[in-house]
UniProtKB/TrEMBL annotation:
Entries under InterPro entries matching the protein: F-box-like_dom_sf, Znf_PARP, Znf_PARP_sf
Gene Ontology terms for molecular function: DNA binding; zinc ion binding
Main subcellular localisation: nucleus
Locations listed in the record: Nucleus
Lineage start: Eukaryota, Sar, Alveolata, Ciliophora, Postciliodesmatophora
Protein name: PARP-type domain-containing protein
One GO CC term on file: nucleus
Organism: Blepharisma stoltei
Annotated ranges, domain PARP-type: 9-76
Swiss-Prot/TrEMBL keywords: Metal-binding, Nucleus, Zinc, Zinc-finger
Amino acid sequence: MKKTSFQAEISKRQTRCKVCKKTIDIGIIRIKIHSYDHFDYYHFECYTPKIKQYISKSDLGIRLDQENAKILDAWLENWNKDYVPLDKAFHETPTFSKLVETAPSKYRRAWLEIFKFLDAVELFKIYSHVNKEFYHISWDEELWHFYCVRDYTNAALDDQKKNYRTQYIILRMESCFWCHAHQSQERFNRCPLIGKPICEKCKKLKRFEQLHKSQIESRYGINPNLLQLKFGLGYWNKKVVYRYMVEEALETFRNRNKEFLLEEMKKINLDPTLVDFVENIDIKTVDKPWSEILQSSGNLYLLPIHEIIYNYIRDRKAEKKLINKLKST
Ligand SMILES: [Zn+2]
Ligand SMILES: [Zn+2]
């Protein structure tokens, strides 16, 4: 996913502002943006970045004198105050200390072995709140050392400093969220769309393929506006999302359609075989068009109502028609 970038410079020739359409005078600060095959220019005060995300100063082409650079810095600081920094793992090294005094559990060894099967962040965020016994275990050095080694195989641990709990959290903040490869502070890169660090290798995986709206429409046969996706900035300033996000959103969307339909059907007290049909629709295979389902259905007796139901779950088409039809059967 792309970071927001533009050039802030002193206008050397007259250009027109893309927002107010008025001339940008020579000698004042202007924003220059590369857009596919041309440049767009803006008055500094007319410009609002297209995507709401953090802007790192290092991604900006800056050719300003001291006075104007200060104006830009102030603008950046104000813009960035609501976002996670993309160029550093954290502002300050986190420090943690115990909030309540607790005594070791009689069953420490047993709990430890159980917690080793679980997710470290769940221990931290959920189980440690269960009771004092779990809270105590959530500070256990042996357990956190285990998590560090298990989850970040390539990380160098500082065995002098110990405090593996903090070390784990730092590793997590600095490592690729998908493959857990550690990224050095100098080469740190957080994906603006998901707000998590991601490495160069993972960016090439299929699940991180970038799709824009018309691609989603043609590939999945669905109007992307139905999926409530959060878009980021892709090449040529197109709005894009990762493929895995579309697939997850599709599943949620279709599950919701299915649940809604079942609720409605129960209200009407329908033929149980029709309810059965809906219950047996597998959301993961709803990608297929109805014609394929018909072909592969064998001797299953399928009616037009089945097709309407299927298509409704697939892409929420013809909702009223479907409800009326159900009421009349
Ligand atoms: Zn303007
Ligand atoms: Zn990775």
